[in-house]
Write a structure and sequence with these properties.
This protein is an alpha/beta fold. Helices cover 31% and strands 18% of the residues.
Length: 305
């Protein structure tokens, strides 16, 4: 996907103008790091960089939010830390950890752009350090990611084995016919809270997000959020190999991210599971991912109102 020409109208700044190489005085800082993991994916996928495509897509959107009646440029800036080269495997994990070590301590939120869901294992381990028991995890995902082995289907299991406590893991959006009885039992045995896609039809996305925050963040612990794009309905995320009909709408995903990011305990968020080469001609999956970045920024801006 090629880059998009920026608007020539200085009164219509594109969202790409929020990206900086350092802190912007007077604005809440959010860090952005790309890591296109893909080599261990259960579903083979291309090496084409999703983080680069999402950055390009930011050119298509502005910085003004009608919902909040504010311009993001007045409240937040994004420190772009670039992309981690060859992030798969143990050496890739070390490169991700070094990149996270370079983050400014003043960041209000860290956003990781994948890549597949293997990124969640690498990124949360880098953010949490040696003691993962002090963190909570919220996933928006059609899948449990509790598989054996090492793949994009195993990050939650790997994190639990590394010390993340199951009672502080909340998995939202689990889809029918996308998981197995064996791994559902594993989730129960680990005391993971599972909120299925069907359960969400009876309550608002905002209420579900707040419930997840309470469980994952018990005791005031920091929370990592994994947004697996295949939780979306296949019509809105055709670039997600494992997405199925009946998933979340684009609007539901945007509201979920904004609600979570407005909470001060949420310290990091990733967006994963997009294969640019499988996306539709109108790039709807990548564009939705760019909007989720903006919704996360809107959430952070709500923290300082």
């Amino acid at each position: 996907m090629g880059s998009v020409n920026a608007s020539l109208d200085t009164r219509w700044p594109s969202a790409a103008t929020l990206l900086h190489t350092g802190l912007a005085p007077g604005r809440r800082a959010v860090g952005l790091l790309g890591a296109h993991t893909y080599l261990t994916s259960v579903t083979p996928r291309s090496a084409t960089s999703t983080p680069r495509a999402i950055r390009d897509a930011l050119e298509r959107f502005s910085t003004w939010s009608f919902s909040d009646e504010q311009d993001l440029v007045d409240h937040v800036s994004v420190v772009d830390y670039g992309d981690v080269e060859h992030p798969d495997g143990d050496e890739g994990a070390q490169r991700i950890a070094r990149a996270v070590g370079d983050f400014d301590p003043q960041l209000a939120l860290r956003i990781f752009l994948g890549g597949d869901n293997a990124l969640t294992w690498h990124a949360l381990r880098a953010v949490a350090g040696p003691d993962m028991s002090n963190y909570g995890l919220i996933t928006l995902d059609a899948h449990l990611d509790l598989r054996d082995g090492v793949s994009n289907g195993s990050p939650v299991r790997q994190l639990l084995e590394a010390g993340l406590e199951g009672q502080h893991v909340v998995q939202v959006g689990l889809a029918d016919f996308s998981n197995s009885a064996f791994y559902a039992r594993r989730a129960r045995d680990e005391h993971v809270t599972v909120i299925s896609r069907d359960a969400i039809r009876s309550e608002s996305v905002e209420d579900v997000a707040r419930r997840a925050l309470t469980l994952a963040g018990a005791g005031g612990r920091p929370i990592y959020v994994d947004i697996d794009m295949d939780a979306g309905d296949r019509s809105v995320v055709p670039g997600c190999p494992a997405a199925a009909p009946g998933g979340f709408s684009a609007d539901e995903m945007r509201r979920f991210v904004r609600t979570l990011a407005s909470h001060t305990q949420v310290c990091a968020l990733d967006i994963t599971e997009i294969d640019v080469e499988r996306d539709s001609a109108d790039q709807r999956t990548v564009r939705l991912a760019a909007l989720l970045v903006l919704e996360a920024l809107s959430g952070v801006s709500r923290r300082i109102q």
